[in-house]
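During the no-cost extension, the postdoctoral fellow (Dr. R.K.) reprocessed legacy sequence entries with the updated structure-token encoder. One reprocessed record is reproduced below for audit purposes.
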Amino acid sequence: MPDTTYVALLRSVNIGKRRLVMSDLRSWCDQAGLGVVRTYVQSGNLVLRSDLDERALVDLLEAMLRELCGFGVPVVVRTAAELADVVARCPFDTSVDPTTLVVGFASVAIATADLGGIEPDGLGEETFHIDGRELYLWLPNGQGRSPLSQALIKVPAGKNTTARNWRTVTTLNDWARDLDHD
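Re-encoded structure tokens follow.
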């Protein structure tokens, strides 16, 4: 029986021609012996159980996706406990519209140098906070036309993270917590 609950976040799927059907993803993971419980929305979010460690799970998922999809898909994983910690550490007001709060997830700790000189206090209403492998973004006018989001896409921190809005983060956290306690 797999013993660790993970949330796997796939970067840049279902954008343009990079299509991935979530039911296919669940089937592929099942065939690989992963205890996949659920996928959430079409942006590549999995809640699963595995006896693999983080690096081995990432390697397995990335190799599987490259073979089955025909393109590389970077994957970031967090254990259920780590994701609960991400939620608990949020430095912003979480009672607001959940689409205005975004978390960028990276595989390694994010350094200030990875932000290409972007400063949290020079962005008008928008701001951010780095905390280990997470980049918390406060985007009061949403992500779509956010100057901060547009700037981050061009710097190493943005190129090496996959972002989820607060609604997605908390839903995945709830699912992972429920599975972890089963």
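The chain has six helices and eight strands. The longest strand covers residues 4-10. The remaining legacy entries will be reprocessed before the final report is submitted.
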